[in-house]
Amino acid sequence: MNIIFALLLLLGGSAGHHPQSGSDQAANMLKSAIHSAVEASRQNEVAASANGSAAKTDPQTDAPKVKGVYVTAYSAGGARMSQLLDLVDQTDLNAMVIDIKDDAGYITYKTDNPVLIKNGHPQPFIRDIRGLMERLKEHNVYPIARVVVFKDTVLAKKRPDLSFVKSDGTVWKNGKGDSFVNPFSKEVWDYNVEIAKEAAKLGFKEIQFDYVRFPEGFEKRADSLKYAKNGKTRVETVADFVQYARNQLSPMGVRVSVDIFGYAASVPAAEGIGQDFNKISANVDVISPMVYPSHYTQGWFGAKDPDKEPYRTIKGSMVDTFKKLEPLKDRQPIVRPWIQDFTASWLGSGHYVKYGKTQVEEQIRALKDMHIDEYLLWNATNRYTQGVVYK
After folding, report:
1. Distances (CA, A) of 36 to 25, 33, 287
2. How far are the Cα atoms of 105, 195, 206 from residue 119, in angstroms, in the given order?
3. How far does Cα 263 stand from its chain's mean position?
4. What are the phi and psi torsion angles at 372 (to 5°)?
5. Which has the closest alpha carbon to 270: 12, 29, 6, 40?
6. Backbone angles phi, psi at 67, to 5 degrees
């Protein structure tokens, strides 16, 4: 890895999933993760799964080319859902990624599953989950269940033994007050897979796992916290979870996808948080790199301010993505990036532009020029730009 390039990355930027405000938090997350990548640059990149090299089989060969939007549980269970369904009906959009287990760790609908009730905290943000699934079916919406995995304040509070505990006996929290659960724990794996299985039974066609990683900057506190280990590295553990989840879910006919930092395709493995782009990609049906232009720092892909050059930034990120995936050959997943439909005003005057029809379409054009015809749009408030031509 070019060290000068790495130092440029460390100068600023943001790359959490998916901040639209709070530049300090986002920048710190990026810096911590890229610090890990710089440390990892001394090692060789691992390009393939640790568990074989057989070609993949897609559990949904009849699935559409997915063009979707993110939908919170509040929107899915509230009045905004009508507007979002209208957007899908009136455009070439055809999918929704809906929170089933959210960023705090809440299961977002009422469930009678004893395993989920034991470890989770169901909150009926979606008051009628079966009614929602019928509604999606009526509008020909391809339903994707978003499950936030290891960022889980709810489970960490309920089961400190499944989290990271400080020397004073309290559960560790990050700067925002969020806690993570332990990726080394098989019990944590099974809990999240059980949520995914229930989502599949409800009718979701795909499970999208997010926060499939250790906490940002974990390598700096790994030796000071108390937690169970499994004898494997963080990278191996995260990849093993993804493979385990896919093995459990594929027989149910659902795809497995994972969200990952967009810059992960441009740098070596982030050992600190346990994310290796290729190890994860080898074990999923779909990989969704978060390539928001606002999340790249000055100088990425030759752009002075990447947020102001969405076409160049997206195209550059896809060049790196395909180059990164080349060693996987017929084990490559579908590449379905997250793109930006929000304005990153936290970048400061002169470093961002207001995102609208032109900026969204420029990102789509870059993907099309790279022969990518699937994508997801992120806006935390679910207010998407009107009049966009989704090609």
Report:
1. 17, 5, 21
2. 10, 11, 23
3. 13
4. -110, 120
5. 40
6. -130, 105
* Peptide bond just before 139 cis, omega within 30 deg: no
Q: What is the mean pLDDT of residues 165-175?
A: 96
Nearest to 210 by CA among 100, 316, 55: 100
The answer for residues whose C-beta is within 8 angstroms of residue 237's C-beta and 6 or more apart is 183, 184, 230, 274
Q: Give long-range contacts, CB 8 A cutoff, 24+ apart: 153-159.
A: 153/104, 153/105, 153/177, 153/178, 153/179, 154/104, 154/105, 154/106, 154/120, 154/121, 155/105, 155/119, 155/120, 155/181, 155/188, 155/191, 156/105, 156/180, 156/181, 158/119, 158/121, 159/119
Which residues are registered as beta bridge partners of 261? 290
Closest to 324 in 3D by CA, of 98, 46, 4, 11: 46
In this predicted model, which residue has the larger pLDDT, 57 or 310? 310
Structure tokens at 344: 């990153």
Q: Which of helix, strand or coil describes residue 95?
A: strand
CA dihedral 21, 22, 26, 29 (to 10 degrees): -150
Q: How far apart (Å, rounded) are the C-alpha atoms in residues 70 and 97?
A: 5
pLDDT tens digits along 318-343: 999 999 999 999 999 999 999 999 99
% of residues, the chain, pLDDT over 90: 82
Enclosing H/E stretch for 191: helix 186-202
Structural tokens at position 41: 């640059």
Write down the residue that tokens 């009049």 correspond to. 387
Provide the 10 A C-beta neighbour count for residue 55: 8
14-18, 45-49, 152-156, range with greatest mean pLDDT = 152-156
Position 20 confidence tier, pLDDT thresholds 50, 70, 90: low
Q: List the Cα angle 89/210/260 in 5-degree steps.
A: 95
* Measured distance CA(89)–CA(387) in Å, rounded: 13
Neighbouring residues of 385: CB distance < 8 A, sequence distance ≥ 6: 341, 355, 356, 357, 360
Can you tell me the distance from the alpha carbon of 2 to that of 34, in angstroms, rounded to the nearest whole number? 13
- 60: DSSP letter: -
Contact between 294 and 245 (Cβ < 8 Å)? no
Q: Which tokens go with 29?
A: 């997350």
What pTM value is reported for the model?
0.88
pLDDT bucket at 53, cuts 50 / 70 / 90: low
